[in-house]
Specification:
Length: about 500
């Protein structure tokens, strides 16, 4: 049987082992605008809404997504989504096998570089009640050293000079909010779904700082009437590859230009602050709460920091995928000991969570061979991820007199990775907004960590903290002097 192109008209002809939307897609109301329609959003938030719309009584609940792409490479996603009537395949992969479903809750997709006015009008539309964001950890313009807004970032410099021609998410949000205020509309709820501790609070602080530079009255209005709920999101989702497209075609008979593959596990904890209304996410497994922080802290300090620990040393040792790295006894010991010995003592009890079991589950998830999560994906934007996932534990451990040896080794592994080549001389990809500067400092410093540790916008006061700089320096010297394998064995011995 030949594979079938994914389109609305072909849903009834898809194989029986593929789940298709059980609701009338033509009745969708795109009242949620999502900026950053990447793999994670499509495997996580969109799946929750798709589940909700399939419930009896929810199919006419006036919810649906309008996706927005801001970056040049989002043109490919636009083309795929429009050709497929906004639909795509989600494949969950585990040792038990693969399952496939079609997600149908995205009713429209706008590509901002080609249609900026359409994006602004959609954001300013009275029917838009929530604007959600997955714009990566680096998309909030935080100076990592001070925790304040980075007004010197090139994106922000452009937005302030050309407020009528926005390019980045903050520029579009500010311009659309100004239109809403002029038209007598309340601000939409702004919901970050990125891996930031207190992501709603961070979004509020950074966006208000930006808006205040544009229009003080608009900033005061947004501060008074806006809502920025915190949330914690979790699902391991590797980047889509041609291998995934072939899997969807050969195993499920679907021609899909941009499927998404993920693990079965998913979690979403959301602060219930939505003055314009929200979907009943709690009906499909999301946890609505008034205190996200304990869940965020647990997840970012354990899962996300452990991802940083395994990916940089893993790439230096020649591994490509997370499960391969986790099969290495040294890397497995590094991850487990960092979680148990250095991070867990910093965590509070989390209601409903057995912390020991949670860590066991993380090891199982990292080791899932079916997901084939790329280490290069996990290591993307280290300049944003190391300060957000690793350094908070360093600071807290130093304040409490705890150990930072393995956390510092993780930072040193990132420094060594920035040089650009693994143990065998193979090039390691560097995807970071500060790539050129980081690479230059890594080459300048070599085995001496001082050059990279001088980046106060990343390390803040830790640049002058002897316990930290010495620990990182010793580990980096070992990585260069002994090699990655011997340095790893030494640190976990």
């Amino acid at each position: 049987m030949s594979a079938i192109e994914l389109k609305q008209a072909n849903l009834a002809n898809l194989p029986g082992n593929v789940t298709v939307p059980a609701y009338a897609r033509e009745t969708l109301v795109p009242s949620i605008v999502h900026i950053g329609v990447g793999g994670f959003f499509r495997a996580h938030q969109a799946v929750y809404l798709d589940d909700l719309l399939a419930l009896p009584g929810q199919e006419h609940a006036q919810w649906g997504y309008c996706g927005v792409g801001l970056l040049a490479h989002d043109a490919a996603m636009r083309d795929a989504m429009r050709a497929q009537d906004g639909m795509y395949t989600v494949v969950e992969r585990s040792a038990a096998g693969d399952t496939a479903r079609i997600i149908g809750c995205i009713g429209d997709y706008l590509y901002a570089p080609d249609e900026p006015q359409a994006v602004l009008e959609k954001l300013a539309d009275p029917g838009t009640r929530i604007v959600a964001l997955t714009i990566t950890e680096g998309g909030y313009y935080v100076n990592q050293g001070t925790g304040e807004f980075d007004a010197q970032h090139p994106d922000i410099v452009h937005e302030l000079a050309h407020p009528e021609s926005p390019r980045c998410s903050f520029g579009y949000l500010a311009a659309a909010l100004a239109l809403r205020r002029e038209r007598g509309l309340a601000p939409f709820t702004i919901m970050s779904c990125d891996n930031l501790q207190n992501n709603g609070d961070v979004t509020r602080k950074m966006l208000l700082a930006f808006v205040a530079l544009r229009d003080g009255d608009l900033a005061r209005w947004l501060a008074s009437d806006g809502s920025f709920p915190n949330s914690m999101v979790d699902r391991i989702t590797p980047a889509t590859t041609d291998e995934h497209r072939a899997l969807v075609r050969d195993s499920f008979g679907i021609i899909d230009a941009w499927p998404v593959v993920c693990e079965p596990f998913r979690q979403w904890v959301i602060e219930d602050e939505f003055p314009q209304g929200r979907p009943a996410w709690e009906l499909v497994g999301a946890q609505m709460t008034h205190d996200v922080l304990p869940y965020e802290k647990m997840k970012l300090r354990l899962l996300n920091a452990s991802h940083q620990a395994l990916c940089y040393i893993g790439m230096q040792l020649g591994y490509t995928f997370a499960h391969e790295a986790m099969e290495d006894p040294g890397i497995r010991a590094l991850v487990r000991r960092m979680m148990d010995d250095e991070v867990t003592p910093l965590l509070d009890e989390v209601e409903g969570i057995d912390l020991a079991r949670y860590k066991d589950t993380l090891i199982e998830r990292f080791s899932n061979p079916a997901v084939r999560d790329q280490l290069a994906r996990i290591g993307t934007e280290g300049s944003a991820r190391i300060p957000k996932f690793v350094l908070p534990s360093v600071r807290e451990a130093l304040a409490k007199g705890g150990s930072i040896e393995l956390l510092a080794f993780t930072v040193a592994c990132w420094f060594r990775y920035l040089e650009g080549h693994d143990e065998a001389g193979r090039e390691m990809p560097l995807n970071d907004p500060y790539a050129a500067r980081l690479r230059a400092l890594a080459l300048q410093g070599g085995a001496d960590a001082a050059a990279l540790l001088s980046l106060r916008e990343l390390f803040g006061e830790l640049s002058d903290t002897a316990a930290f700089t010495q620990a990182v320096g010793q580990s980096l010297a070992s990585l260069y002097g002994l090699g990655a394998r011997a340095a790893l064995e030494q640190i976990v011995a």
